[in-house]
Design goal:
- The protein is built from 18 helices and 30 strands.
- With 666 residues, the protein is an alpha+beta fold.
- Strand 2 and strand 3 form a beta hairpin.
- The protein starts with a helix and ends with a helix.
Length: 666
């Protein structure tokens, strides 16, 4: 071939390849199938009547300490309800609508609202005009709102508009106008709010209201124009100037694509990992709802909280903190789609580990309002959580970081909660109170503690006068998880030691806590001679932990599957339905179905080969629990096992986490 022709061909090929741009995954026009399948899984419509109105649900993302909803009034205003501020400890509504777009002389005839796991979206329309508003979180500090106005006619339209707030719902907030911003001050929180409008906007304010000067917007025929504003609520440990730079330089559509990709990937991780027997669409809905429930309870570090984590429920005033037992369960649920957040949830609680290994029961952002609870800890499930996270991403550094903390916490139980030093532990407290010792079990008022007494072990260490089967089953499981973790760290001596201890403990559990005639595991007196009767969900923890014999598991299974006892409308509740103290409406831990206990029961069945029964129970749990499989309704703290009624807190994180565990492949 002629050298000149060859040179020209090479040049042409080079130019051709130089025209091909590397595809930015953020720019791909994806279908977002899982997001679309999951729309409106929770109903966010509420126009709050006062600052404490919890009659509706709120949307949050990225760990923000504030949330939004759709208005539900007959005359719907152009904006989103809220924000609901969790920057104040128990959560309050700032306003029914803090940023209302007021378009002069425009009346809307149509309204539609759609909630996605990624963002909120609402549309207003009449025959001439359409307004589409979208809200998405940029970060844990800021949300941005896009308002796109479209002229549907063949004639130009001139619009006059301004922004204003509806009345504040709390006297603790004060508004301050500053050029194109409104600053929100709080007398009850160090967090400061910033509402930022486009540069040409001018704001004015009084103590509790603001408005912007009228502006004109011209729309040519079929034309669309966009107005973007931001709302930020930021704690003093973060830089407002850096956040402001971020939110004023990024494009709305870029943020929205990022969120959609993030949620699509997370939902795909969950939905495609379902067990083969749970492939119906209703299980897509409940997994998306579980994902969104955990998302709405996610919080970034603030105050005394140094790592990201999840509330039990933003919706209940006493649950705006972080509990150890809850955290371990949240982390396992999160591990199926977001191992990084799962790790942060674990780290959050271990920041509050004492030198002796003790981990606090619950902690709060602001201890000037609510003190941490160091009166007790919670059942030992942290090694389970760390092991499950490691199964997913094989992050050896995380195991190295947590292993010494886990080991210290594990042995703390034997140092401070083994009254007679027989190798079987008891629940207890640090302050010698009986109530805190019951809290330590996580089952605060379970009937097995009705006649319990408190005993002193040593200074700041007290035990109940009974040895609990669930506690020792958890400790057995923890030893086995520590065997796994020590092996990956090549700590041979530790793995041998934990395995020896586990073998001994397994024998003790099978001999002391199992009542052969009843076919059930019970708590016992300290000497192991007296069973504390009353069949409760603690009876199948030995199956969850793989600490029972096959024959024992068979007997327990038969009772679990008995409709008069535990196989109720929502199977595997906290107490046998035929017990005289069974009281789901008033009992809390004396009858309601808690989904963590249901999961432990289902997993226990699977551990011993009872998969048919486990599948049947899983389906009945989800079918029976009010609203769980339906779009719109929140996942509840617990449920009435006979009627299926949802009870207590809405938007409950550990219920959501265990729904994920019930449906996803191990």
């Amino acid at each position: 071939m002629n050298k000149k022709i060859l040179s020209i061909l090479i040049l042409m090929i080079t130019l051709c390849f130089s025209c091909i741009k590397t595809t930015d995954p953020m720019q791909v026009n994806k279908e977002y199938n899982y997001i679309l399948q999951s729309k409106d899984v929770l109903n966010y419509q509420i126009t709050p009547k006062d600052s404490l109105d919890k009659s509706g649900l709120m949307f949050s993302d990225q760990g923000a300490w504030f949330a939004y909803s759709f208005p539900d009034s007959v005359k719907t205003d152009e904006g989103f309800s809220g924000p609901f501020l969790m920057t104040q400890q128990n959560g309050i509504w700032s306003s029914s609508m803090l940023t209302k777009l007021n378009i002069v002389d425009i009346n809307w005839k149509e309204y539609n609202a759609t909630a996605y796991n990624s963002h909120l979206e609402q549309t207003f329309a009449n025959k001439d005009l359409e307004l589409k508003q979208k809200l998405v979180f940029v970060s844990g500090h800021s949300a941005i709102v896009s308002s796109k106005l479209t002229n549907k006619t063949d004639k130009p339209i001139e619009l006059i508009y301004n922004w204003q707030n509806q009345p504040l719902l709390t006297e603790s907030l004060k508004l301050e106008a500053k050029e194109n911003e409104v600053i929100v001050h709080s007398s009850k929180s160090k967090a400061i709010g910033h509402i930022v409008f486009p540069n040409e906007t001018k704001t004015t304010s009084t103590y509790n209201s603001y408005s912007t000067k009228n502006q004109t917007l011209y729309l040519d025929p079929k034309d669309t124009k966009e107005i973007v504003i931001s709302q930020t609520f930021i704690f003093p440990e973060y830089s407002w100037q850096e956040e402001k730079k971020n939110i004023t330089t990024i494009e709305f559509d870029t943020v929205l694509r990022k969120r959609k990709n993030e949620k699509e990937n997370e939902l795909e991780s969950l939905i495609t990992a379902r067990k083969k027997q749970f492939q119906k669409d209703k299980y897509v809905t409940v997994l998306a709802k579980a994902h969104l429930t955990l998302q709405n309870n996610w919080r970034i570090p603030a105050g005394e909280i140094k790592h990201e984590g999840l509330f039990p429920s933003y919706h209940y005033k006493w649950f705006n903190g972080f509990w150890s037992w809850d955290s371990w369960k949240h982390a396992v649920g999160l591990s199926y789609y977001n191992t990084e957040l799962a790790k942060k949830q674990i780290r959050l609680m271990f920041e509050f580990q004492n030198e002796d290994g003790f981990v606090l029961d619950c902690v709060y952002r602001d201890t000037s309002i609510e003190n941490h609870n160091n009166r007790d800890t919670k059942p030992p499930l942290s090694a389970w959580a760390v092991a499950k996270i490691y199964e997913k991403d094989k992050d050896l550094n995380f195991v190295k970081e947590l292993y010494p903390k886990l080991k210290k916490y594990h042995y703390w139980w034997y140092q401070k909660r083994d009254h007679d030093q027989d190798g079987l532990c008891e629940y207890g407290s640090t302050d010698g109170t009986l109530i805190a010792a019951k809290w330590e079990s996580g089952m605060d008022n379970a009937i097995r503690f009705d006649d319990s007494k408190i005993l002193k072990n040593q200074k700041n260490a007290y035990s109940l006068n009974q040895e609990s089967v669930d506690l020792n089953a958890y400790l057995y499981a923890e030893k086995m998880y520590l065997v796994t973790l020590s092996k990956v760290l090549h700590k041979v001596d530790d793995s041998i030691q934990f395995l020896k201890e586990a073998e001994k403990l397994k024998i003790k559990i099978q001999k002391q806590f199992y009542h052969k005639q009843d076919g059930w595991f019970y708590d016992t007196s300290l000497d192991g001679k007296i069973f504390i009767k009353g069949k409760g969900s603690e009876g199948w923890t030995a199956l969850w932990a793989n600490a029972a014999s096959q024959k024992q598991a068979e007997a327990v299974k038969n009772i679990m599957m008995n409709p008069d006892k535990f196989f109720t409308k929502i199977p595997f509740q906290t107490m046998s339905a035929d017990h005289p103290k069974f009281d789901p409406l008033k009992g809390y831990w004396r009858g309601p179905n808690w989904l963590d206990q249901s999961y432990f029961g289902v997993k226990g069945l699977r551990n011993y080969g009872f998969n048919k029964e486990a599948d049947e129970a899983t389906m009945q749990i989800l079918d029976g629990a009010e609203g769980v499989l339906d779009k719109g309704k929140a996942i509840r703290e617990n449920y009435h096992p006979i009627t299926g009624q949802g009870l207590h807190a809405q938007n409950f994180s550990w219920s959501a986490a265990h729904i994920i565990m019930l449906l996803i492949k191990e």
